[in-house]
Write a structure and sequence with these properties.
Signal recognition particle alu RNA binding heterodimer, srp9/1, alpha+beta
Amino acid sequence: MSEDIKPTLTHAGIYVRDMEGMEEFYTSVMGFHVSDRGFVPRYNGHITFMSNDPTIHHQVILAEGRSADAPSTINQLSFLVKSIDELRTMYRRVVAREVENLLPRNHGNAWSVYFDDPEGNNLEVYLDSPFHVPQPFGEYLDFDLSNDEILALTESMCRDTEGFLPRAEWSAKMATAGKPN
């Protein structure tokens, strides 16, 4: 290939059973706003565009058409937050909502909260840590710890793991080699 093209994921679409219920969840729990909606003849259903960034028209699309017995085909949709405090807030929000399959994880290279939306699609809200360890890696993430305690515990776990690198070193290695190892 003569050009190094690297597409960036910008949005995801989900077929839904209950548009109203899913809109409510993604607005009240995930903090999205409806940016547009309409009817799509090709799908014979309504579509809702949502974003939590005023410069982006849509990041999530909800489209009618998922049959009542259809399981989710989504492995996960991942949403980045800016701080441990924001991640803790999201954790508390989903705990209060009594979501299914709640799993707070310390991946070493990131802190994550996994849970299902009302139709069983797996969501992840996460924050990158300043460390790298080979994946998969996961321990329970205790939100009763302070931010400093989470950071110190993560660094300790990572330093004790073969393949540990500070994130900046790992990123530099990825940039020059094009692969992590």
